[in-house]
Specification:
345 residues; alpha/beta; single chain; TIM Barrel; 11 helices
């Protein structure tokens, strides 16, 4: 039976303007980082993706290295898109990125023109698309002139292989520089994708969030749950099957320190008083800032997706709730400023 999207899919999801530009994103977007690789079968992928779209999530975020293994998330999403979602392509925002290691040798990562142009073509092939809506430089490359990296992004947009250009995990000074270079080439930097959560506030500390607001750039926040920590799933230790339990995990020891876990437990009464889960409270906090266009979630199953979407029932935070959250979380803020080696994404 051919998939038919729900008729009421736009009735409950709020959309926000991406900075000063015409692009609008749902306040909740779905990222396919670590949960849509070869371990995911087609049936469960379609179940999650179709439920998300039926709930008004129109933005699906990928990258060339998403999996595992790298490339497999784009391949699986491309299969679902081709078989089920083709009639709805123009209702979707599909993004990809390049910046992390994809193949051996000097041309397989970072920000050279060689790597970005090849990566974009490879991503389009895996996705089965002629263009993506957003293409990002996934991380700043300290050894490649920013003019080269941004020049490749501009050419990708001007050639029609992407509609919008974006950057990810760029600090404040490089955000401003990238924006100026792209503007000079006639291609705006429409969106920035940084990590941001209650306990990861580097974009506030180094004023990246202020720069984006000043420049008219949208922000889509990844890891708003800090790799699941703010969902409370590590409160009783590291459970088998969680991300921190897996080899090569991107969950750092500082993510699951006793002090941080205790802080998360102190957030539970606030969430309960709001009739929310910890997940929903964390998303409400990220979305409290008008500069944030969308919060980028990642889920392992349908139940997690429904929990995330439940934030729509109570998005607003009042001043007393914000003050209470600050008192709990400020003492355990993590140093997550982008470094040349980058976030393992």
């Amino acid at each position: 039976m051919t998939y038919q999207a729900a008729n009421n899919r736009y009735e409950t999801m709020p959309f926000r303007q991406c900075g000063k530009w015409g692009l609008k994103l749902p306040v909740i977007s779905l990222g396919l980082w670590q949960n849509f690789g070869e371990s995911r079968d087609y049936t469960s992928a379609f179940e999650i993706l179709s439920h998300a779209f039926d709930a008004g999530i129109t933005h699906f975020d990928l990258a060339n290295n998403y999996g595992p293994p790298p490339g497999s998330s784009e391949e699986l999403f491309g299969q679902v898109l081709g078989r089920e979602f083709a009639p709805y392509r123009d209702e979707m925002i599909i993004s990809s990125k390049a910046g992390y290691n994809m193949w051996p040798g000097p041309y397989g990562e970072f920000g050279s023109r060689k790597y970005l142009m090849a990566s974009c073509d490879q991503s389009l092939k895996r996705l089965g698309l002629d263009y993506v809506d957003i293409f990002y430089s996934h991380r700043f490359d300290p050894k490649t002139p920013l003019e080269e990296t941004m020049g490749a992004l501009a050419d990708i947009v001007q050639s029609g292989k992407a509609l919008y250009a974006g950057i990810s995990s760029y600090p404040e000074d490089k955000t401003r520089e990238a924006n100026a270079i792209l503007n000079a080439m006639g291609v705006p930097c429409t969106i920035h994708q940084p990590s941001y959560s209650m306990v990861n506030r580097w974009i506030e500390e180094d004023k990246t969030i202020d720069a984006c607001a000043e420049l008219g750039m949208g922000i889509i926040a990844f890891s708003p749950l800090t790799q699941g920590v703010l969902a409370g799933k590590y409160s009783k230790g590291i459970a088998a099957g969680t991300r921190a339990h897996s080899e090569g995990s991107s969950v750092l020891p500082s993510h699951i320190s006793p002090q941080l876990i205790e802080a998360v437990e102190q957030l539970r009464p606030i969430a309960k008083a709001r009739n929310q889960s910890l997940v929903q409270l964390a998303l409400s906090w990220v979305l409290r800032r008008s500069e944030v266009t969308s919060a980028l979630i990642g889920v392992r199953n349908l139940e997690q997706l429904k929990d995330n979407i439940g934030v729509l029932n109570n998005l607003g935070l009042d001043e007393s709730e914000i003050v209470a959250i600050e008192k709990i979380t400020k003492p355990v803020l993590m140093d997550m400023h982008p470094k040349p080696s980058g976030w393992l994404r």
